[in-house]
Amino acid sequence: MVWIEAALNGPWSRHRQPGIPVTVAEVVREGIDCAKAGAGIIHVHAYDPESGRQNDDPQAYAAIIEGIRSKVDAIVYPTIPFVGGAQAFDSGAELDRYAAIEELAGRGLLEWAVVDPGSINLSTIDEARAGQPGSTYLNPGAHIQRGLEVAAEHGLVPSYAIYEPGFVRYGAALWNGRPKCPRPIYRFMFSDIFTFGLDPVPSSLDTYIRMVERHAPGAPWMVAGLGVDIRPLTLHAIARGGNVRVGLEDAPFGTGLSNRQWVEEAVRLVRAAGEEPATAREVRLDLKRPADFPAAAGGRSISPPN
């Protein structure tokens, strides 16, 4: 079984990604549609419908999670607030960053949590060429440690966004010192338009896989990204024992495909590889398997790199 995650909207607003769902009702509807289409995992950002900007309100997240789960069985998890300035280093900033996650977990609504093990300059190639500074996505060490503490306390699976290769080593080292924390998922982030990370080609994926095998043997992983068409990497990822994330958070800006259509494309590729999309229940069972069973995800055999 191959896990398919649908990332429904991201932080972009409709200015950059016109098709994203914004209101609670829209996010719930698309989450249900994607789960029915084959996504066992749904990732969401909450928005203020009046301003059209991200709003990390735990009540909005609760309504989204409960709305989706009232109709389908899915692992539904939210983001954490974006921090890109000096306030990231204020006293107690790491507590504020994970306050909504703690509240939702305390209410029994969460299974996974975002914990991104590193910081990056977030700029498109065109912005950099034009001399524009872009932005900075900050995840100071104290924030990462707080995320893992919350995950350990509530039994949440950390979802690691791996924007750069060093994130693998840092994330693995931080987790290895926390025996009560569930094993993280390593989400390799690629891009066609942003400057972070390795190029979206099979040899880059093989590099990430070797790093996980060395530093976090047996950990589950998936291919994902921002501003990327992940389809050219999907078959290679499945052949190597991995999983896939799609949706309007990750897709090229202005894509003509809906969230459901991105999931349907992923299902088509999974079946072309001779596999089936995993249900939420099957994802949960995979996560309970020992790390050496015998492959990183779902017990599927891992093919050697070309």
Low-confidence stretches: 294-299, 301-306
Q: How many structurally independent domains?
A: 1
CATH topology: TIM Barrel
**Total number of β-strand segments?**
12
Shape field? globular
Rg for CA atoms: 18 Å
Major sheet description: 8 strands, parallel
Architecture per CATH nomenclature, i.e. the level-2 architecture: Alpha-Beta Barrel
Task: Name the strands of the widest sheet in spatial order.
Answer: 5-2-1-12-11-10-9-6
Q: Roughly how many Å apart are the termini?
A: 23 Å
Q: What is the percent of helical residues?
A: 25-40%
**Average predicted confidence as pLDDT:** 94
Strand portion: 15-25%
**How are helices and strands ordered from N to C?**
EHHEEEHEHHEEHEHEHEHEHEHH
Total helix count?
12
Characterize this entry briefly.
This protein is of the alpha/beta class and 306 residues long. The chain has helices at residues 13-16, 24-37, 58-69, 93-97, 99-106, 125-129, 141-154, 166-176, 202-215, 231-239, 259-272, 280-288; strands at residues 4-7, 41-44, 47-48, 53-54, 75-78, 112-114, 120-122, 135-137, 157-162, 185-190, 221-225, 243-246. The chain has one domain (4-288): TIM Barrel.
Structure explained in plain terms:
With 306 residues, this protein is of the alpha/beta class. The chain has a single domain, classed as Alpha-Beta Barrel (TIM Barrel), CATH 3.20.20. Helices cover 39% and strands 15% of the residues. It contains twelve helices and twelve strands. The strands form three sheets. It has an eight-stranded parallel sheet with strand order 5-2-1-12-11-10-9-6. Strand 10, helix 9 and strand 11 (221-225) form a beta-alpha-beta unit. Helix 2 runs parallel beside helix 11. The longest helix is centred in the N-terminal third of the chain and has 14 residues, at 24-37. It is globular.
